[in-house]
Amino acid sequence: MKGGVGKSTTAYNLAVGLVKFHQKRVLIIDIDSQGNAGAALGIEIWQLQKQLKDVLQRHAKLSEIIVKTNSGVDVAPSNILLAEEEIPISGLPGRELLLRKAIASVEAQYDFILIDCPPNIGVFTINALMAAEGVIIPVDMSYLGLLGIKGIERALSLIRDSLEHPIQIAGALATRFDGRNNLSKEVQQSLHNHFGDRMFKAVIPETVKLREAPSHGLSIFEYDASGTGAKAYRELVDEVIKWQ
Ligand SMILES: Nc1ncnc2c1ncn2[C@@H]1O[C@H](COP(=O)(O)OP(=O)(O)OP(=O)(O)O)[C@@H](O)[C@H]1O
Ligand SMILES: [Mg+2]
């Protein structure tokens, strides 16, 4: 429910880390029309013949749109054309389950499937939540970041109660942490009070290297392997691997 908190940055660095350090088979599904997760892994998102919107419209199978990237992560990419389909897709019967049904055919080929969501609760995010076992909630260290939690928790109640899908909070993740800034520390404390042991221990720092890496089509593990961003995302990878 908030933009720019590090959803895409987390999705693609986590995906690369699961491949690189644990040899897992990982798919990222980009259900955000900004196409950031795919673009950050070097996919030319403007030149796609087929993309996720074709799958949601049932014009293509998920396996037909998957792109292999140099990082070893497979991606089901999107671009802005997905946004144009939001209203038509919202009118389809069974609209909340389009992604879950599409995933069923490829699920056995992967150890982890990560879905990168847009910053709002619309038909695409609902599809992502209905297809997922757990949700990672990145929260940036701002007051508005804390407010965004209310939005996602409301959506999770809707998913559990009205749509009867038992989704779990896999964890809340403190992102864009700046230790020199009192607000960062205050927000982190509020998050701990709210989420308790459902907080990831990894804390993602604000660092320019994390911002620069996508413009090189690289993960933080290649772009700045020894820096604080890589260290923090490595910790997250090692926490997430324990779910398997
Ligand atoms: N820890 C960080 N340190 C510095 N820059 C960061 C960090 N995390 C993300 N960024 C940068 O902030 C911007 C927003 O991050 P990102 O795209 O991951 O957020 P998002 O939640 O996916 O945004 P959106 O809601 O628009 O999809 C990007 O330019 C990204 O490179
Ligand atoms: Mg994003």
Q: Brief overview, please?
A:
The protein has 244 residues and is an alpha/beta fold. Helix content is 45%, strand content 16%. It has a 4-stranded mixed β-sheet. It has a 3-stranded parallel β-sheet with strand order 5-6-7.
List keywords for this structure.
binds magnesium ion, binds adenosine-5'-triphosphate, alpha/beta, 244 residues, Rossmann fold
The tally of helices reads 13
Bound molecules: adenosine-5'-triphosphate, magnesium ion
CATH class: Alpha Beta
Structural class: alpha/beta
Based on the coordinates given, report the CATH architecture.
3-Layer(aba) Sandwich
CATH superfamily: P-loop containing nucleotide triphosphate hydrolases
The proportion of residues in beta strands is: 15-25%
* Rounded Rg: 17 Å
Largest sheet report: 4 strands, mixed
The quaternary organization reads as single chain
Q: Please report the total strand number as a whole number.
A: 7
What portion of residues is helical?
A: 40-55%
Q: What's the arrangement of strands in the largest beta sheet? A: 2-3-1-4
The domain count comes to 1
Mean pLDDT: 95
SSE run: HEHHHEEHHHEHEHEHEHHH
Low-confidence stretches: none
- Shape field: globular
